[in-house]
Design goal:
The protein is mostly helical. Helix content is about 60%, strand content about 10%. It is built from seven helices and five strands, in the order ββααβαααββαα. The relative contact order is 0.20.
Length: about 190
């Protein structure tokens, strides 16, 4: 049996195939754990390089989000990951729900909320959940999975790959927003 790691939404769709040996699983898990736990620091570093007006600047691109909306989305989706990952462990094969990201951006994200509070929550959540994941038996994680309404069978490691790379995916949008803002504000 082989494990197939795949990020259908956040990459070119390239699949990375790993043998299902515990050694390979552990190597992949540790790499993803490092990426996951270090995500808030990478996000904070990127945000510190942005002029304040860029945080609430919306590029003239259909469906574009502000940087603040991207940050709130990352935090909200981390709670989604915590729930999905724990479901995959406690109830292997459980059907997970989908969130309408556009509805959340439109109806839930409020500018009067302190963005630093979100960043602190993000860092704390990933730190605490990272410790939890380290405490789970690797054999248990290797057998954990959920049923996703659009993607079907997602192993724990599939979920982990998506969410560990989530910050890096959104950092590209932060760079896009900064470039668009500079274009509009020479």
């Amino acid at each position: 049996m082989r494990l197939v790691f795949w990020m259908p939404r956040y990459s070119s769709g390239t699949k990375k195939v790993y043998n299902s040996s515990m050694s390979d699983f552990n190597t992949a898990f540790e790499k993803l754990l490092d990426q996951y736990v270090s995500g808030p620091a990478r996000l904070k570093q990127a945000l510190s390089a942005l002029p304040a007006p860029v945080l609430d600047f919306r590029p003239a691109i259909p469906g574009a989000w502000t940087v603040s909306e991207h940050v709130r989305h990352l935090v909200d989706n981390d709670f989604n990951f915590v729930l999905r990952a724990k479901m995959s462990i406690a109830e292997p094969g459980a059907r997970v729900m989908l969130l309408d990201e556009e509805a959340w951006a439109k109806e839930v994200y409020r500018y009067e909320e302190d963005l630093q509070d979100y960043l602190d929550l993000f860092e704390r959540t990933r730190g605490v959940f990272g410790k939890f994941l380290q405490s789970v038996e690797r054999q248990t994680l290797q057998q954990a999975w959920v049923d996703h309404p659009k993607r079907g069978h997602l192993s724990f490691i599939d979920l982990f790959q998506i969410y560990a790379g989530h910050v890096d995916f959104h950092l590209e949008y932060l760079e896009r927003n900064l470039a668009a803002w500079k274009k509009d504000h020479p």
